Amino acid sequence: MTTKPGITRRTFLGGALFAPLFPFLTSVAWTEESNTGFDLGPAQSFSFDWLREQARQLAAQPYRAPLIRHPEILERIDFDAYQQIRYRPEDALWAEGGGPYPVQFFHMGKLFQAPVRIHLVREGTAREIRYSPRLFTFGKTSFAADLPDDMGFAGFRVMHSSAQQRDWLAFLGAAYFRSAGELDQYGLSARGVAIGTGLPTPEEFPYFISFWLEAAADPKTLVIYALMDGPSISGAYRFLTSRQEQVVMDVEAVLFARLAIQRLGIAPMTSMFWYSETNHLQSRDWRPEIHDNDGLALWTGTGERIWRPLNNPLGVQTSSFFDNNPKGFGLFQRDRNFENYQDDGVFYEKRPSLWVEPLEPWGEGAVQLVEIPTDYEVDDNIVAYWVPQTPVQAGSTWNFKYRLFWTADDPYPANLGRVIATRLGRGGIPGIKPAPPNKTKIVIDFAGGPLENLDKTAPVRLMLNASSGKIENDYVLQVVGTKQWRAFFDIEAVDMNPVDIRVYLRLGDQALTETWIYQYIPSYRSLLG
């Protein structure tokens, strides 16, 4: 199963918000951080070129796993004990100004035993921020205060301000990071890379082993550099991050393959989908829906807009959407209605969407969606990423630039109707017994765009095709009292293999909606009775 190593989904990361991204690095006088309690190591020259060279040299050497110091103490810092440990806010980096946002550091524990080194950068010079137990309060976990000063940190989080002790961005665990976005609620995570996701062999999880933090000229922009290493790959990253309504991150990644990689995922994102109105019969919970995101959005190189509702399959499913120079893709949470979740503890209706925009041509490849079965909301069972068509050979170098939007809605909305719901049920005509065997009715709701200007008499056509099976009773109508349009059809599969279906609405020669793509799994038919 694809989960964060050592990370449960409902962790201890706090809240969020963000500002526009037009960063230019600035020079700031180098002084001691007199307002903090941490010590700084000796000054060393630093640049992204230097970091790139460090990653290249790592890949040229045999991989060495992170050294775990004092595991006997870390094993005692379990989930409950970890909740007792708090970073002292007054000792945050930039706690009293001098940088864009206060930055606090995560302590290590049973779930986070691999140390990371964190540095402060100014005027092309870096100094390591040294760990000390004096930077933390330990509550009832007083034994953890006996850790020596050579431990290192587990990661860091970026706070709203010194007055608002909530975080909006966090790097913690392997090569994972996430933001709470404009709705101030954490959800899905991003990753440095994905390696071997969905394959029968074990998935590989490289680590960010060191970070460098720098203020930019824009007072709301933070520059984050990271060095990544893993058994098959090393990499140098630069994240230019700012916050206003949306959280926007410009990412530059230079990757060096130590070994040949069968499946390399670029700009990966990891989420959770248990059930929605589409597959609610799979639920064993009183809440109507439980998911961080409900669909994959694609903007292809040819300009087509695609919406693919997520599945919770009975076995691992990998879907590939082949493309050339895609304009973007992302996992979205479109359903923003609290009534559809009824959870006032974790607020699924506020979970962020994450959109990837390539900042240079990516060439040929595919967006892959991996869906993994789950029966719990604590599992990250959805992964999406870009796979280059060119094979990844040992010794090869890869460069990618892209922009991440942690947002509530599409950053580049199209003037098209959007899918707002997908429902499955018994085939046939409601109220007519018996229901026809082996047939499933699929109902899709569309709203917005040119649909707003149509009345119910408009000759809207349902454009539909399926990779296999038999389609019957297909039609479309406007939902009474609304501007929404609803498509209906029955499908009868010829075997138990998944069926790929494409649907959109058209008026004359004009496409009215995005394209709905769905993978119908015939074995779900048994759940419908």
What does this protein structure show overall?
The chain has 529 residues and is mainly beta. It is built from three helices and 35 strands. A hairpin with a 2-residue loop joins strand 33 (499-507) and strand 34. It is elongated and about 75 Å long. Residues 1-30 have low confidence and may be disordered.
Overall pLDDT level: 90
Number of strands: 35
Q: Low-confidence runs (pLDDT<50, min 5 residues)? A: 1-30
The N- to C-terminal Cα distance equals 29 Å
Number of helices: 3
Largest sheet: 17 strands, mixed
Task: Write a brief caption for the model.
The protein is mostly beta strands and 529 residues long. It is built from 3 helices and 35 strands.
